[in-house]
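Researcher: Here's the sequence for the chain we discussed earlier.
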Amino acid sequence: MAATFFKNNEKEAVMSHTVYLYWSFRSPYSYLAMPKLMALKENYDVDIVVRPVFPIAIRKADFFEKVDPQWIPYLVRDCKRIADMQGIPFVWPNPDPIVQDIETRKISDDQPYIFRLTNLGIAASRKGKGLEFLNEISSLIFSGTADWDKGDYLKNATSRAGLELDELESEIAQNKESIEAEIEANQAAQKEAGHWGVPLMVYKDEPFFGQDRIDVLLWRMKQDGLKEK
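Model: Thanks. This is the structure I predict for it:
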C-alpha cells in the first residue's frame, strides 16, 4: 500500500510495511506472541492492523472432540516452556475464555466470555489501540489472575491500553451488527490468506503462522527495506 508524502515540494511514494494480525483471545500462542509484536511495533516503522477472530472452538465446535487427546496436554506443556524461555508468566486461564468440558472436550453452548472479549477487541481496533488492548487483556487472562472477569480487572487492563471499558462497551451496543460482520469478514480474510490458525500475520498476502514465525516475518520485511526507527 503506497502512501504519498511531500518533501521539498516533491512527491515521494513510500511503501508502508503493513501487517494484518489475526488473533484469538483463547489462544495461548497468541498471548506468547505479544512481546515480540509489541517490540516490532515499537522498534520498526510497521503498521500492525489487528483483526480479532473467534477461536477454533467457536468456528468448529467439534474440533477438540476429533483432535488426538494428546494434543491438549502437549499444548499446555509447550506454552509453559516457551513462556519460561521468554521470561513471561503463564498460567492456564481461570476462567477459561471458552467454556469446555475438560474430560469430553465438548464445547458448551453457553459462552459468556469469548464473544464479549472478541467484540471488545474489534472496538479497541476501531479506536486505533488494538495491539495495546490485546497485549493488556491477554496478559491479564494468561498471567495467573484468577477471576479476571470480575471486579475492575478488565476495566484497569483496558485503561492501561489507553482506552475506557465503558466507551468500548457503548461502541459495541450501538454497533452490534457491524461488529459481528467485521468478525465474520476477518475470519473470511484469514482463510483467504492461507491459514486457519492464530496468531497469523499476513504481509503482502504472505501468511506467517505462529508466534515462532515473527522473526521470519521481520526478515521478510527487511528484504523490502524495513528499517529500525
